[in-house]
């Protein structure tokens, strides 16, 4: 699942870059095109940081993601002020954007790590001619992490909708939490489907 999402993001990014690069020759460097290239520039800087951090450190996963969240939030806010994305009254939105992305990536990594451990244990048992049994769902942590994040995003989404109904003012969080809730729902459904499939094969 993670590979599919990764490949989709890479493919979409390449399409966007190509389309907007050609658009420059036709309409010039508009604010929209400039924004796209600023985002890609920021993404490159953050990717380099992420790579170096993973290569040079060995913290526990949760600690690693908390540090990344703090550093990335500061970088995004600083970059946002430099290019004019933020001003003193709305910079706090960066914490929400970065937090949602960090939470989803952490959930995916938790599931992948748990799957890798299960696969290794399965190979060890098969090499020793031991019977391989499916680990009960209640003992697996991956889906619990996703479920907690899903509930959190759903609560924030409901709060955003309530705020819109009460004040009549659109909250950017409405779009963010809607997307996060949808993505996490799909991930949880796929996770449970894969788990049930693997369990049936071992039965």
Task: Provide the fold topology.
Elements: H1 2-27, H2 31-56, H3 61-83, H4 93-127, H5 142-167, H6 173-202
**N-to-C SSE string, H for helix and E for strand:** HHHHHH
- The total count of strands amounts to 0
> What is the count of helical runs?
6
| Parts with pLDDT < 50 across at least 5 consecutive residues | none
| First and last CA, distance | 24 Å
Helical amount: over 70%
Features of the shown structure:
203 residues, 82% helix, mainly alpha
Describe the structure.
The structure is a single chain. Helices cover 82% and strands 0% of the residues. Helix 5 packs antiparallel against helix 6 (173-202). The chain contains six helices and no strands. It has 203 residues and is mainly alpha-helical.
Can you describe this structure in just a few lines?
With 203 residues, the protein is mainly alpha-helical. Helices cover 82% and strands 0% of the residues.
């Amino acid at each position: 699942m993670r590979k599919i999402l990764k490949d989709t993001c890479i493919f979409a990014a390449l399409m966007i870059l190509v389309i907007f690069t050609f658009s420059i020759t036709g309409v010039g460097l508009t604010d929209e095109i400039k924004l796209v290239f600023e985002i890609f520039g920021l993404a490159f800087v953050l990717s380099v940081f992420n790579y170096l951090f993973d290569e040079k450190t060995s913290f526990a996963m949760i600690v690693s993601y908390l540090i990344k969240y703090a550093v990335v939030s500061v970088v995004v806010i600083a970059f946002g002020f430099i290019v004019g994305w933020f001003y003193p009254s709305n910079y706090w939105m960066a914490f929400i954007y970065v937090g949602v992305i960090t939470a989803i990536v952490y959930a995916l990594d938790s599931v992948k790590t748990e799957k890798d451990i299960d696969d290794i244990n399965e190979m060890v048992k098969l090499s020793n001619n031991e019977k391989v049994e499916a680990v009960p769902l209640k003992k697996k942590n991956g889906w619990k992490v996703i479920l907690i994040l899903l509930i959190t995003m759903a609560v924030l989404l409901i709060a955003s909708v309530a705020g819109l109904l009460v004040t009549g003012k659109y909250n950017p969080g409405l779009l963010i939490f809607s997307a996060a809730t949808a993505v996490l729902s799909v991930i949880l459904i796929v996770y449970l489907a894969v788990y049930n499939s693997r369990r049936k094969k071992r039965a």
